[in-house]
Amino acid sequence: MELLIQDLKHAFRMFLKNRAFTAAAIAALALGIGANTAIFSVVSAVLLKPVPFPDPDRVVLFMNTSPQGSGPNASPAKFAHWRQQTTVIQDATAFRTNVVNYTGGQFPEQLRAGEVSADYFRLFGARVVMGRTFTPEEDRPGGEKVAVLSHGLWTRRFSADPAILGKTISLSGDPFVIIGVIGPEFDIAEFGQEPDLFIPFQLDPNTIDQGHFFQAAARIKEGVTLEQAQARLKLSAQDFRAKFPTGLQENSSFSVERLQQVFVRNARPTLLILSAAVAFVLLIACANVANLLLVRATARRREVALRAAIGAGRGRIIRQLLTESVALSVIGGAIGLVLGILGIRALLTINTAGLPRIGEQGALVGLDWRVAAFTAAVSVVTGIVFGLIPALQSSRADLNRTLKDSIGQSGGTFRHNKARSILVVVEVALALLLLVGSALLIRTLVNLRNVNPGFDPGNVLTMRMSLAGQKYVETAGVEQLLRDGVERLQGLPGVERAAATCCVPLEGGYGLPFRILGRPLDKSPFHGGGAWLTVSSGYFDVFKIPMKRGRAFNDRDDSLAPAVVIINEAMAKQYWKDGDPLNDRLLIGAGVMKELNEERERQIIGVASDVRDGGLNNDPGPHMYVPNAQVPDALNALNVRITPVAWVVRTRGEPYAYSTAIQEQLRQSSGLPVSEVRSMEEVVSRSISRQRFNVLLMTVFGASALLLAAIGIYGLMAYSVAQRTREIGIRMALGAEAEQVRKMVVFQGMRLAVIGVAVGLVAAFALTRLMASFLFGVQARDPVVFVAMPVLLTVVSIVAVWLPARRASTVNPLIALRYE
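^ that's the sequence the OP posted. Answer follows.
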């Protein structure tokens, strides 16, 4: 320990003595380590932190699997089947978050309601501070209407009333008795918005319904492995298929996956790519600092030789030099830790990229023991990595030769120059790799911004309204509300067109299978499936979606009129390659769920232009549009229970300027509140937030790499010129022209840059294929990128080399020779 303290004291004396070197090294390290800390803090929050539930490794989600992939959506019939697999799972629960209207205050308010099964609270470890949770009887159809409050709602809306139990509140027009309050530590914000209260799901255990509108989770039993549970669920799929032939396709099955893995699986590839990219930035920073240390080692050769001459062994010298490099790295790491955390929090405040488990505006990303330990480990390892080569080379000093030379005459050894050259080549190669990656992502973002979504998002405002409750169980009540609302909105100055729908483009929706009447079936009970949307007349006008054939809906397409449907071009091309869809009728969802038993045969009356509803980077799939007024009562009752209606309004100017007036008109016509007020341009922007996040970070990494590489080339050539002052003076004294000297220095520097560019091109050509899934409208080996980025890096290298070359050409031979 005493020797370590001595080494540290000597290191800090050297840092203070060489302040320019220290500042440059710490700046490079803070940049590299800070960038890594920033990304790791997100990785820690999303991928590494255990879920905040009891036995997190045993909490699983039920999954539907098929050759096309897997998903966690559940139907009532499937949940009833899954909860019977008691040999491998327990505490099976269904859950979803909806909105309900609370009318107990001065103004109606929308609350987030968690519809959950009775075992939900035990599965997720929700502690009850007052009262109790649901009983199995209350969780059955027809059970008592009871509610459990979150601690936040209890304190915010009811002032932490200790006598709250037993009181009745009105939720969407229905009375609910408050039976409990959940403790404040129960927090599921990292998986989405936390419910304000919980109500029983009341799913029928004997149901045959196959509609997918919630998720289901359970706990694997003690002594049962995940693989055993998966095997049991897969085997049980045969029993389900035998009971419900239309409920599960032949090549589909069931499984379970750990809850955390399911929620983060879409984010994992993004974070892994960014982690690799930021590691390259750190490597470039290491190479840069290693070069600085090699330069400094040349100036310290006499000091090292004197140490060796008075008895210091090679190991002692190496330890002293590594202590200095690790101390330097730790200082840079400490600064980088602060900068990284502040930087990523600022970035996530602007754009969360749709990442799970990070909270609103990245509130759950910050400094914890994992981030601190990671930064400390990276700092130490980095200090050893960039300090090892200079330490080893400095400790090999030739004592006789070094002691004979004066400090002013000591030039860099061949090994030193070779090592510095290799490090510069590595810097350039890594910089080009990052530049190519960032350029590909930038082109992807540009392509996404330029893609035609199939609708016009300009000047369109959207908002949600919950119609849950007895008043809107029947379609007639919903139809009247929508007609009145649309009429009021279209009477507002500045409103061009208004409509209502279940599903706003790019925000998800329903999917249902269909049969084409009169066409023979193969093995499947359906001809196909597609997105299913309920819309009012005016929907296509609001979004300016062209009708390619036939007509759009009008006010005459009500519940008394013949049932109709509009399909999109993608569906027409896929299922009517040679025929005319306007001559055919569809039967949608028959046999899937009891709510569709009243579904009528629908005449296809129009073919609408395609909308990229599944994402701007996905090709449109089949779509079916049906009028709101023609939804069967049973299906309408389910719709209003699980999904708020969306109002969509096209205005003549900036849509938010009309927001207050629109909300007031809707409140007057319905007495109900609205929420999630957004413009369609904001919806489109959110749909590509992950791509924007990737581009921003990769651009920062690429720019940092470019700067560090330029500094590395400049530093090497500037040092080379300084060490060769006497040689250059002799050349010029013998008649060499300034232009010849400049060309000599430029050639030597650019030779390294060109080698680095060549190595980087080979590496980029091999590695960018790993980014293929992140790209849209551009190939992983795009020729424009693979030409432009090397040219950019070459130009920057020329500038970095030209400055030392220009200085070399101004050397005065007499002064240089007199100095030497």
